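Z., the sequence and structure:
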Amino acid sequence: MKLSAAAPIPALLASADPSIRWKTRVHVLGEDPNSKSIRLLREEIRSSPTVRALLSRRDQLGRPGTRRQVYYKWQGLHWVLASLADLGYPEGDESLHPLRDRVLELWLGPSYFHEFAARTEAEAYRGRGVPLMRGRYRRCASQQGNALYSLLTLGIADERVHSLVERLLHWQWPDGGWNCDRHPEADTSSFMETLLPMVGLAAYARKHRRPAAMKAARAAADVFLRRRLFKRVSDGRVIAADFVLLHYPRYWHYDFLGGLKAMTQVGRIADPRCEDALDLLEGRRLTDGGWPAEKRYYTVSPKAMVSNADYVNWGGTSQKRMNQWVTVDALAVLCAAGRLDA
């Protein structure tokens, strides 16, 4: 029996944030993303308070400078572009090119093209470049993967994204994913390091019609599907407590809703191994028809750069109160899975 989307839809469509309205209309109600009314809504997103907050330091951070300006959690340019990509920000904005250039300069730096063999964790940390240990490259591929997805989604990618893809394919592990664990015995891909490269490669494959990229994304999807998006292969236990809590934003972290959302992006949401996670998502629905944000990875600091702070308050956390960002993503996933009557 399909659930009804009706309960939270009026509240989402009346949201003060145009990104919530865009996500609802396009990803839940299935409106044409190229229609005139949706294009106008995306222009409203461009000038929204959320976007203004995210871009409040664009001139300062877009200039040549330190790695901190690009990757500082969660206020660096890397995270700003990732948020814009998720919000429905209009594609092709040339004013974002300086931000793009700073991100690509970092993630395509010379060290990512230099690799060295290492036998121990100490050797892996002493060397400069990407360590190769027991046939596996130890690299935090979520960084290149997130940049790839953000730039493609925002329509500001240039020819350098081909190099991001080449690096991701080069570093991919035999089981289909990626991991930066420098313990020599580590032989299983990380959920956190695999999710973002997977969706980035899928987006690249769709845009450039590159079968090799889609094949790699599909192989990465199996890392999650073998574990039903949150369970150990060995005994079916939950892999990590945070994996079964709801968050927004997730940044580089993982939870089962993020896994389900990614499965829609790579065309695997109909796989029967998503059923346990879909059941879990349905079970977290509140009496008002929405979903909560049960935990968050950010504090809010719109003016000062503070570690693990964001420019935006994404609705906070609660066990009983609907979070619009989590709710609209949950509804979109259930629609894509055929479990929701929208």
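The two ends are 13 Å apart (CA to CA). The mean pLDDT is 96.

Let me know what you think.
H.
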